[in-house]
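Deviation from plan, reported transparently: zinc ion complex.
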Amino acid sequence: MKADIHPNYVETSIVCACGATYPTRSTVQGLRVAICAKCHPFFTGRQKLVDTAGRVEKFQRKYARHTATVASKVASVSVASVSNDDN
Ligand SMILES: [Zn+2]
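Because the crystal trials were delayed, the predicted structure below was used instead.
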């Protein structure tokens, strides 16, 4: 290795919000992550909503509104087709 050009590569650990730690080596100390392979829903098989700033609630509100709109449209279409059949 050439002298004085390489960053300091030290032993450190990645700490997840769930408490899991992963020993590794890095040029920075104290890596913190919000989600890791021990707690990510893809690996745990459990559903866990990873909510950032109420995005999930926002989607659920929007989806509920969409479902209501579709339901009313379906109802009006079926009423229209019933009246067309009578003619
Ligand atoms: Zn984790």
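The CA atoms of residues 16 and 33 lie 5 Å apart. We consider this an acceptable substitute for the interim report.
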